């Protein structure tokens, strides 16, 4: 009976964490480049001494699958088709993002919506805000008119799951994670949408609610059984 109660509590805890994750996914439904979180719930038996206890645990990970590329026609809206990240100059080192809604400030620096400079290969490129149109090829090389500006720093990781999510759609890499060249293609005039499906998340939410309700019913049943055992009539 105690094992059943413990298992139900674990299952309800996993359901609560799953519900929080679904809520976060839905909150970022319209966030450019956002990658949804998913989890895998596992049930397993653990032998402690002579007893066998059933446990439940959930593993959270990020789904890095491609989001839909939405055309905008804006010259500084850039999207990646394939695996990889734009590199951004953060205050404490490099940051990585799939959100390519960039703009050029008055001094000609290509920046994120948060005002962080976009990183380049080699020297930072400078764009004349009042100059000729800027073109970006599929490798991330920029030209203004016929003048070469530079190459954006676009990288990938062998194990992107090691990246740590930050606010604003940015990621940081642990020291052991070394950036490698990305084979992603740059699409100018496009923005990558979040890889979140509202329908899928709502369906998952209903399923989680049912699991949680089942857990409460099991706990109630165990509680009633315990009362009958301890207070026999």
Describe this protein's structure.
The protein is α+β, with helices and mostly antiparallel strands. It has two domains: 99 residues, no CATH class; 124 residues, no CATH class. Helices cover 25% and strands 33% of the residues. The strands form six sheets. A six-stranded antiparallel sheet has the order 14-15-6-5-13-16, with no helix packed on it. Strands 9-12-11-10 form a four-stranded antiparallel sheet, with no helix packed on it. Strand 5 and strand 6 form a beta hairpin. The longest helix has 33 residues. The two termini are 20 Å apart. The relative contact order is 0.21. About 6% of the residues have low confidence.
